[in-house]
Design brief:
The complex is a heterodimer of chains A (about 200) and B (about 725). Chain A is of the alpha+beta class and about 200 residues long. Chain A is about 40% helix and about 5% strand. The N terminus of chain A is likely disordered. Chain B starts with a strand and ends in a 5-residue tail after the last helix. Classes of the chains: A alpha+beta (about 200), B alpha/beta (about 725).
Chain lengths: ~200, ~725
């Protein structure tokens, strides 16, 4: 992190709130001055928790956990505003947050449905019918991989790699929860449960 | 234990320091290793892999830029294994690189092209589709062709580590990786255009220069950037007499390999539409174009007559502090030859009370290079990033090395480095803050207060920040108090300086200046001042300073250089004085001079004249002219020489600029050592009235910069002019 410490503390002993508003972009703030952060209390709590796990000059390390919490919090994908809020909260230049958010496939930076489905089609699942499970999901939701349902309920994610549940293949993940030994009926029941 | 390590490169034994990388050693010993991402001024990334070399006993080729030396290490840079690795990397880099060299501005000066010659295959084995990356709009200075990018991340590392605020990043992953800002955003830092030079391929290029010329058609001419007192070394690339672009000229002692955006794009002002092409004379209220001879005859006749009738004291001469040393010297001699001591170049200054305590020239106090090892710097009255961007960069380095940097300013400016203390106004003026720091320093040291400020210090109530700054200034080897341009424009500059020098005396810190203009130091040396002549010698009867000169409404004025009175001169009475004068001659590149002058003589800009600039370290830098003068304009020194001849003044038989330089050196030698002859002044009470802050935005600093459309269209430039995004 290109750490710059807060120059806002010394003002000849007298407070000058309007001066503190000047934002150098990478000044670490424990709580943003003046404006109300768009991060929920839960998200802030979560970020604070992760920040305690790293040395004070390594706040950048908390960015993955922060984005995960925020994405979960605000409905499945990251907006520019939410990433900027994370950058401001942790004290990073916004571009460093964008870099992380675009690098990891678990982060969505474009609007997607609120429930994220990943159907595994790697070798073990493929041998046990993963491809059929995927086409069932596609047919049932009327979308292809990489698309979201028009009602914004589901997002069928392009699955990247094996999710490490080969012993109970075929499997899929919905909102970070594993569902194993899938059958079309089981899929229908699972999808019905996610409103 | 010794710090030294012995290694062998291609069978040649070499000495290295522990912790050095292999590439440091090969570079130091002139052993060639190809590279893209490695740059000596940037942190190591090791992501291009072009510098792979063979290391004995290592199973795989190693990147020379990220392999630390070890005792007994044997490195081979040209072994079959090393060459094979380098050629393989080259092949990978070219997979997605477009074959658009014929229309690429980087063509002919491209690191990728050069290395492809040395390490590329004759034919491509890649027959799949190449990837295409959308271009980003990074603002008016840098053009992008992102498909050409090889992801070396030099630009990213520059914004992060040199600017101090990361603006560019590596977005995406794998084959989808792109360099960019992710959101639509311009790069705004005042040094940002250096990424053009850093980019080893044609991805980032000079936007105004796009498609204007090919690298091999142009000739390269050394110049000095005149916009600040750093004396930044630049090259002008000239095609058929015309400056096509400006690039940095590396000089470790001055600007390293960087230049500010202002230095790079101000050249557009050379070809501004309102350049004066011919001399002109006002007849019956209307300016008429004429030839040089008539115009100069007229000037000589008018000035000669006014000097004779009313005395030389009725003539005032002001010069832009961006003029060359030779121009300033000749003009001062002409004015003195006419019997006038009314000379000044400090156009925005308003407090002249203690001119006598000026040093020989306003010096930084240390060398620019030493600045980055300063232990403590107190900057008073300066938006230093915008005033002198390259000094701000050095101070940033000092701060990152643990030096403590504090500011006393009327308002808060942002600095992209750790700031130890920042005293902004809060109802207290900069002078009050400075007095409080001085009081804290006096209390802490137990010394008696210098008589000059004793009465003020007694009343001061230093707070913790004042005390911390006082302590900071008393510790460490290299300590500096710098008076910036805003301080020098302050109506109470004399008081500020008095307190600052008392503070320097108490703490043992060095008092330095950040003079305004590219050659303010030179102007001091040749005595372009009302009270001093060459080498700081006191003149018998001092003339009027710039403010008094206009307040006194003289009969005649000589205005030299690209001065636009309303924007460049602080004195309020300037317009009235110029309007009311019997005769005004302006030597300027720009037609705005026609608004106030009776005779307008077109002179060349910094790129069109040979000349010397003395920077704020006192470093003399002479350069020949680079470009053909626009229209009938002539280098300033030639015009002054002929004018002096017409006035029958002796000693103006120069045929080349370096003859004038030699004369200046002789005159300085004759003047001997300089001693200040100031009377001691004591400060009883601070001046009443609200402090006036005279900040000049970075792209409004002089007439040339104001004419650079690229700079005016940057975010900063638009904000300065109050134009929306």
């Amino acid at each position: 992190m290109s750490g710059t410490q807060d120059p806002g503390s010394n003002d000849g002993g007298k407070s000058a709130p309007e001066l503190d508003e000047i934002d150098t972009g990478n000044v670490a703030h424990d709580a943003p001055h003046g404006r109300k952060s768009i991060l929920s209390e839960h998200a802030r709590h979560e970020i604070d928790h992760w920040l305690t796990k790293f040395p004070p000059d390594r706040r950048r390390s908390a960015v993955i956990a922060a984005l995960r919490a925020v994405q979960h919090d605000i409905g499945g994908y990251l907006t520019k505003e939410s990433m900027d809020a994370v950058a401001e909260y942790i004290g990073l230049p916004p571009i460093q947050v964008y870099e992380v958010a675009t690098f990891y496939s678990m982060f969505e930076t474009k609007p997607v449905g609120r429930h994220s489905i990943s159907v595994c089609t790697n070798i073990s699942c493929m041998l046990c019918g993963g491809e059929e499970m995927l086409s069932h999901v596609e047919k049932r939701l009327g979308i292809k991989v990489g698309e979201s349902t028009p009602d914004g309920r589901f997002f069928l994610k392009r699955e990247e790699e094996c999710l490490a549940a080969c012993n109970n293949a075929p499997m899929m993940m919905v909102d970070h929860v594993y569902f194993e030994n899938l059958t079309p009926e089981k899929i229908d029941e699972i999808l019905d449960r996610h409103k | 234990m010794s710090d030294e390590v012995n290694i062998e490169v291609n069978g040649v034994p070499m000495k290295a320091r522990k912790g050095q990388m292999v590439i440091h050693v090969t570079d130091a010993n002139d052993v060639y290793v190809p590279r893209f991402c490695y740059h000596e001024k940037l942190p190591i990334a090791a992501n291009c892999r072009m510098c792979l070399v063979e290391v004995e006993k290592a199973p795989k080729p190693m990147p020379a830029c990220a392999t630390p030396v070890a005792e007994g290490m044997k490195v081979f840079t040209k072994s079959p294994k090393a060459i094979a690795a380098q050629r393989a990397v080259m092949e990978f880099l070219l997979i997605n690189h477009p074959l658009d060299c014929p229309i690429c501005d980087q063509g002919g000066e491209c690191e990728l092209q050069d290395l492809a010659m040395g390490f590329g295959r004759d034919i491509s084995r890649y027959s799949e589709r190449k990837r295409v990356v959308k271009d980003k709009n990074l603002g008016p200075l840098v053009s992008t062709d992102m498909t050409r990018c090889i992801h070396c991340t030099r630009c990213v590392r520059f914004t992060q580590d040199v600017q101090g605020f990361q603006e560019l990043g590596t977005v995406g992953r794998g084959e989808m990786t792109e360099i960019g800002t992710f959101i639509e955003k311009s790069v705004d830092h005042e040094l940002s255009a250096n990424i053009i030079d850093l980019c080893p391929v044609g991805a980032l290029n000079n936007k105004p220069y796009r498609y204007r010329a090919r690298a091999w058609e142009m000739t390269q001419h050394p110049l000095i950037s005149p916009h600040d007192a750093v004396g930044t070394n630049i090259y002008a690339h000239v095609l058929r007499g015309r400056v096509m672009r400006i690039v940095p000229r590396a000089n470790e002692d001055v600007n390293e390999t960087w230049i500010a955006d202002r230095d790079r794009f101000s050249y557009q002002g050379i070809y501004s539409e309102d350049r004066l092409l011919k001399p002109s004379i006002r007849e019956n209220g209307v300016l008429q174009e004429t030839d040089w001879e008539t115009a100069l005859q007229k000037v000589a006749e008018k000035l000669g007559r006014i000097a004779k009738q009313h005395g030389g004291g009725q003539i005032g001469a002001i010069a832009s502090p961006n003029s060359t040393l030779e121009e300033l010297f000749l003009l001062s001699r002409i004015a003195r030859g006419l019997g006038s001591a009314n000379l000044d170049h400090r156009l925005r200054r308003s407090d002249f009370r203690d001119d006598a305590s000026d040093p020989l020239f306003p010096s930084l106090g240390v060398s620019i290079k030493e600045l980055e090892t300063a232990n403590s710097v107190l900057v008073v009255g300066s938006n230093i990033r915008k005033e002198v961007p390259l000094l701000a960069h050095r101070i940033r380095k000092a701060a990152l090395k643990g030096g403590r940097v504090s500011f006393i300013n009327a308002k808060r400016y942002d600095y992209l480095f750790p700031v130890a203390g920042y005293l902004a106004s809060n109802g207290m003026g900069s002078l009050d803050h400075l007095v409080a720091v001085a009081a804290a320093a006096i209390n802490a040291s137990g010394k008696t207060a210098p008589a000059s400020i004793a009465s003020l210090v007694g009343q001061a109530q230093p707070n913790d920040t004042h005390k911390a700054i006082a302590q900071q200034l008393s510790e460490g080897e290299r300590r500096l108090i710098l008076l910036g341009a805003i301080a020098q424009r302050d109506p109470a500059f004399a008081d500020l300086r008095l307190v600052a020098s008392a503070l320097a005396e108490v703490t043992g810190a060095t008092l330095g200046y950040l003079p305004e203009g590219g050659n303010a130091v030179g102007a001091h040396l040749v005595g372009f001042l009302p009270g001093r002549s060459v080498g700081g010698q006191t003149v018998a009867s001092p003339g009027l300073n710039v403010a008094d000169m206009f307040a006194a409404k003289l009969k005649a004025y000589i205005v030299f250089g690209a001065i636009e009175p309303k924007l460049d001169i602080g004195a309020e009475s300037v317009s009235a004085a110029l309007d009311g004068a019997e005769f005004v001659v302006a030597l300027s590149p720009y037609s705005t001079a026609a608004q106030f002058a009776d005779v307008v003589l077109p002179i060349g800009t910094f790129a069109e004249t040979a000349g010397t600039y003395v920077n704020l370290e006192g470093r003399w830098q002479s350069v020949p002219g680079a470009a053909s003068p626009v229209g009938e304009s002539r280098p300033g020194w030639k015009v002054l020489r002929v004018l002096a001849n017409l006035l029958d003044l002796p000693g103006f038989e120069y045929t080349a600029a370096d003859q004038i330089t030699a004369d200046i050196r002789n005159a300085l030698d004759e003047a001997g050592a300089f001693t200040a002859k100031a009377a001691t002044r004591t400060l009883q009470a601070k001046a009443a009235g609200a402090p006036v802050v005279r900040d000049v935005p970075i792209y409004q600093v002089d007439a040339m910069v104001r004419r650079s459309s690229a700079l005016q269209n940057t975010r900063e430039g638009r904000e300065e002019r109050g134009v929306g995004a």
